[in-house]
Amino acid sequence: MLFTETMPIGERFLNSIAITILGMLVVFAVLIIIAYSLELLRIMFKDKNTIEKSVPEKKEPVKLVPVTQENVEDIDLILLITAAIAADEGSSTDDFFVRSIKPLAQKDTIWASAGRQQNMSKKM
């Protein structure tokens, strides 16, 4: 025989609500503990990454490429990319070097790219 069988319906209802609220409080308490522990881990590992990045790297000397008709377009492309990176970083072009440019394979279809370009042109 169960303990709840001797209770009236009102008491059973109140006990079931109390058990539900208790269960929800336990779940939320565990979620809060997990959130704070993840935040603590993020802070701990972020400090290590900033220390490693603060060490200045040695820059390699610039290799000069003779200008010919074949590589004039490549040099223009490198200059444009270097200027864009410098503008985005807010630094001078003397701070870094573009060593190579590798084209990436197109992941989307041509139709998806065209649609994306149309949406971007509408926003401007």
Keywords, separated by commas or semicolons:
single chain; mainly alpha; 2 domains; transmembrane helix; sodium ion transmembrane transporter activity
| SS element count, helices | 3
Average pLDDT reading:
78
Q: What kind of sheet is the major sheet?
A: none
Question: Which range does the strand content fall in?
Answer: under 5%
Written as H for each helix and E for each strand, in order along the chain, the element string is HHH
What would you call the structural class?
mainly alpha
Folded structure, characterized:
This protein is mainly α. It folds into two domains: 3-53; 57-104, no CATH class. It is built from three helices and no strands. It has helices at residues 9-53, 72-89, 110-123. It is elongated. GO terms for molecular function: sodium ion transmembrane transporter activity. InterPro entries: Na_pump_deCOase. This is OadG family protein.
Spell out the blueprint of helices and strands.
Layout: H1 9-53, H2 72-89, H3 110-123
GO molecular function: sodium ion transmembrane transporter activity
Subcellular location: Cell membrane
Main location: membrane
What's the short story on this structure?
Its main location: membrane. With 124 residues, the chain is mainly alpha-helical.
